[in-house]
Design a protein that fits this description.
The protein is α+β, with helices and mostly antiparallel strands and about 200 residues long. The chain is built from two helices and nine strands; from the N terminus they run ββββββαβββα. The chain has two domains: about 15-160, Elongation Factor Tu (Ef-tu), domain 3, CATH 2.40.30.200; about 165-198, no CATH class. The strands form two sheets. It has a seven-stranded antiparallel beta sheet, covered by helices on one side. The chain has a two-stranded antiparallel sheet with strand order 4-5.
């Protein structure tokens, strides 16, 4: 089995850019697990007396990218608090950062966090995403002397904004590379023509 890495060794790390707060989120650790889902929905058409239900195209759901990552920092007395505060901003409304009235005013109907995910671990370009999940699982056996966590597992789900220029550029690339270059690559990998199979 291939060795599973949880420390980034590549020159390009994973990252997210949160334009609502102006922060760049990254870490030395890399996502341990990743999912990339998109619903394809059909509407069954029950016909009396027929032994099956014909399916008609209905709609497709949003593309969802999910991952879990360990956020670790044992270097100082604050533990991983500073790194976790970046993720904390992703699960709260962000208007208080710009509002002089304080932390509790001006939040209603304010903007929810959105990020550009680098595409690390997937097959796609960076994409503009809605943050739909940001859950923390602190490791209680990984705390410092002040009781502050030094290791927390973060589970995230990002829904890609498919009405965005980044998505449209990606779709244009997919249409070209998938239909033409992808077919050539798959045939070459099976026949072994010109290179190793994978």
């Amino acid at each position: 089995m291939p060795k599973i890495r949880d420390i980034a060794s590549a020159s390009v790390p994973w990252f997210m850019i949160d334009f609502t707060t102006g922060q760049i989120i990254t870490s030395k650790t890399i996502p341990k697990t990743m999912t990339d889902n998109k619903q394809i929905l059909y509407a069954p058409d029950p016909v009396p007396g027929l032994g099956f239900e014909p399916l008609n195209p209905n709609r497709m759901g949003n593309r969802k990218i999910g991952f879990t990552i360990d956020i670790i920092d044992r270097r100082g007395s604050q533990g991983n608090q500073l790194l976790m505060n970046q993720f904390e901003l992703l699960r709260n409304q962000v208007s208080f950062i710009r509002s002089p009235q304080g932390l509790t005013e001006g939040l209603q109907f304010s903007e929810f966090p959105r990020v550009v995910y680098s595409g690390w671990g997937t097959h796609s370009f960076p994409q503009n995403c809605f943050v739909t999940k940001c859950d923390f699982t602190p490791r209680t056996d990984q705390t410092n002397r002040l009781g502050i966590s030094t290791l927390t597992q973060v589970a995230m789900e990002l829904q890609v904004d498919e009405n965005n220029a980044l998505w449209r550029a990606w779709r244009f690339y997919v249409q070209y590379s998938g239909a033409i270059l992808g077919s050539s690559s798959s045939v070459a990998s099976v026949t072994g023509f010109g290179s190793r199979p994978y």
